[in-house]
Design goal:
The protein is α+β, with helices and mostly antiparallel strands. Helices cover 42% and strands 21% of the residues. It has six helices and seven strands; from the N terminus they run ββαβββαααββαα. The strands form two sheets. A five-stranded antiparallel sheet has the order 2-1-5-4-3, sandwiched between helices. It has a two-stranded antiparallel sheet with strand order 6-7. Helix 2 (87-104) crosses helix 5. The chain starts with 11 loop residues before the first strand and ends with a helix. 27% of the residues are buried. The model has no long low-confidence stretch (mean pLDDT 85).
Amino acid sequence: MDFLQEPSLYTVKGMCILDNDGNRILAKYYDKTLFPTIKEQKAYEKNLFNKTHRANAEIIMLDGLTVVYKSNVDLFFYVMGSTQENELILLSVLNCLFDSISLILKKNVEKRALLDNLDICMLAFDEICHEGIILDADPSSVAKRVDLRNDDIPIGEQTVAQVLQSAREQLKWSLLK
């Protein structure tokens, strides 16, 4: 007898971006029971890359996970969910991730540009998904929230990093005068 699993908000098990050699650039795993160590995560990513880097498909079932993926130039984007998860939901997360990164990188989606903007891309991961719960699937709103400029934010709402960056910029300009 097949029992239906109760619906859950925790739909995403993990998201990652790999380069064209299968090396991790950015990854987040939300289900700590799947891959508790970084070594296991990287082994899974290597296996996933080997199975998908030459394929023309968008979806694969691997090690008890449904994985949707997309490649562009020298990057591979992956979103993982359980085998019972709706593939269309996972695909909407993947498209949001890819399109958000594309907007952040101004359509220059390649390894070098991603590494230059890694901090903003990490924020995009967090804006899309938190602990496996999908927060946003609209790429323009994700890109808008992570690409805030320091000048537009009142000092009370700035992060410590933003305040330090702003201070550095002001110091640099005062020294150049």
